[in-house]
Design goal:
85 residues
Amino acid sequence: MIHVLRPGLFTTIQDLGRYGYQRFGLSVSGAMDRWALVVGNRLLGNPRPGRPEWKSPIQGPKLPVPTRRLSPRLSPGAEIFPPPQ
C-alpha cells in the first residue's frame, strides 16, 4: 500500500491501456508515451513491461520514503528546465 501525504497537481497512474472494449464505447486510453513506459519498467527491472506508472506533469506527490530501503526512481523523457535568470 502507498501512503500519500499530499497529492501532486494532475498526478495520474497510467498503464498500457485496455484493449478489446471499443465495441462497448470505451477507449483504449493508457500512457501517451508507450515507449517510455515500457523502457522505464525494463530499466527498473519490472518483469512486465506494462506495469502502471505515476505521471506528475506539474508537481509530484509527497510520499513517505522508507529509511531501510530506497526505491529506485526513473523519469524517462522528463523535460528539465533551468530556473529563469
